[in-house]
């Protein structure tokens, strides 16, 4: 077992080294451009004068990343804040929208799972609303809610509600009939049955839904913030894209991936905690 | 012509109406000079205010002109000023005049990160808002549609908008009709047609059939100027080329990715494309229409009526900043002030080339044109009339439109003129002027005739 783990780690490290090497070679410049007067060259960027690749190399990205990590919480006014602050805004937004979605999806999912009538009645609506791209909601949200911050939260809410709703409904509906029958025989009331029998039984499925949802919410926040602007890691990406600073964009991509992985891991832990052997 | 041109420039056309004695450029100049306090160039803000207040006091003390003139002649201006200060606290009055208390001090103003917004942006780091008693947060915004929605939703109190946008919003084009107003034009000139480097031997617009161009927004001067330019060269912009709406900051990336062949875009975007070796400057927009407006400073009527003093202070701050930006000796300092990530987020070299007008053209040459971009706040209503003719020409407005009524409702020439006069700047005495676009004269009194004279237009 441990030798397998070791071997996998070695392969991972090798792949990473190959990746960095290729990256470095691919971004080597083509050498300084000739036939350019020095006055003219002074007015031009390094891409034009040095034949420098528009893509930054790994060393450049590493240096810049170190710079960002040294001052994650600086605040130079409303349009320029440190990466730590931007990530905090994004996580706060995702958290709010996601929590609202949990509050709506789980009770509603329970209802759908427990009542075949509600399930049939709501089915067409869910089927139509589920596949809509969250960003398609954005103009509508901006227009009706009239607040860009709330619109972003609404978009998070609307996109993370569906996987949770469907998984909850599925989990609740597929609780073993025998367990429910046993509860009935023992004359357990509906509310108590829901909390003591159905909830623990459906919990692993519900948490799987929640895990899918947090992933989607994190995917969407970046796009939503690019559109709405102001604060957040998505805004940071957009702002650096404006300045054509690919270095910063790459750093942001790295961090987005890292935070997404952390969020996913937290929910995976929770899911493991409620899983039971049958 | 810019309001801030050197008045002692011998080439300057003195086309304004002038005053009764004929020695001054306008009636307000004459009055100020008549007050006998000074006839030299204004030196500073405080001096200007002092002059305005003092002349008002002089008028109050001597309601009859003849008496005032006689008094000034007999004792001289400086004695008169000293005598006046004896019984009237000129200093205190000047200060009071400069600060009518704003209803709302903390304001949010949206901007798009381009050099057109220079006065709006620089007013924050260089302290023009603070000077007029405001605490303004300037907020960078992703695109024109978003800035429109955020201003309509009152997230922003006022905004940087393309000059035709407030007209479009007021008329309900592409949005619910909401009355908006423009107290100040941000910049004149300062745009350009940039083409991808591969088109460097294709400089004749008649050969541009099938190319893809980006413009920042449908309701933009860029759209109207590019269409005008193409149509003058015999291309129908609706059928012969593709025009795409792309937010300015994304244009260079699109040009490099070969998604578009060129764009008519605001600076610093044009210069940025050159700086990064992605394109070259075909022409400056100034070569299409010298002195054309581009961006404006806009606010909703609701904000203006609910917080008139805040609005007036904002207008003063913007006019003040614009006056500062109009002076070429200040441009380097401005470039440094607006370059950081909090504002435009662009290399200082690029902004300097745009603002000082000494720039690389992308083909190996260095060009100089001090008026590449210029700043003049006066919202000429004839600008609005011209934009309306183009909106009609390209089918954005269908049916009849009362050109002058719309222009006068949206472009606040009278109010801005008053603010400028209060601040001791020369305001034009009329809100309409005629100008020519690519050699063709535009008469604001005959918009329908002008519109009818174009062969290429959208069939209505």
Task: Note the overall shape of chain B.
Answer: globular
Runs of chain B with pLDDT <50, length 5+? 35-42
CATH superfamily of the domain at 83-274 in chain A: MetI-like
Largest sheet, strands/sense/barrel of chain B: 5 strands, mixed
CATH class call of the domain at 83-274 in chain A: Mainly Alpha
Radius of gyration of chain B: 23 Å
CATH architecture of the largest domain in chain B: 3-Layer(aba) Sandwich
Ends of chain A: how far apart? 26 Å
The CATH superfamily of the largest domain in chain B is Periplasmic binding protein-like II
Class from secondary-structure proportions of chain A: mainly alpha
Q: Largest beta sheet of chain B: what is the strand line-up?
A: 2-1-3-11-4
Q: DSSP helix count of chain B?
A: 20
In which range does the helix fraction of chain B lie?
40-55%
Q: What's the CATH class of the largest domain in chain B, please?
A: Alpha Beta
Biggest sheet statistics of chain A: none
Number of strands of chain B: 16
Write a structural description.
The complex is a heterodimer of chains A (278) and B (460). Chain A is built from twelve helices and no strands. Chain A is mainly alpha-helical and 278 residues long. Chain A has a domain at 83-274: MetI-like (MetI-like fold). The radius of gyration of chain A is 25 Å and the shape is elongated. Chain B is an alpha/beta fold and 460 residues long. Chain B contains 20 helices and 16 strands. Chain B has helices spanning 27-34, 45-61, 65-75, 77-87, 90-98, 118-122, 128-131, 144-152, 165-171, 221-232, 251-256, 269-275, 301-306, 308-326, 331-338, 348-356, 381-393, 403-410, 413-422, 447-452, and strands spanning 106-111, 135-140, 158-162, 180-185, 188-189, 191-196, 212-215, 242-245, 262-266, 279-284, 295-300, 358-360, 366-368, 373-374, 435-437, 440-442. In chain B, the strands form five sheets. In chain B, strands 2-1-3-11-4 form a five-stranded mixed β-sheet, with helices on both faces. In chain B, strands 8-7-9-6-10 form a five-stranded mixed β-sheet, with helices on both faces. In chain B, strands 5-14 form a two-stranded antiparallel ribbon. In chain B, a hairpin with a 5-residue loop joins strand 12 and strand 13 (366-368). In chain B, helix 2 packs across helix 5, helix 3 (65-75) crosses helix 4 and helix 17 (381-393) crosses helix 18 (403-410). Chain B is globular and about 75 Å long. The two termini of chain B are 35 Å apart. The model of chain B is unreliable at 35-42 (pLDDT under 50). The chains are: A mainly alpha (278), B alpha/beta (460). The interface between A and B is large, with 34 and 40 residues.
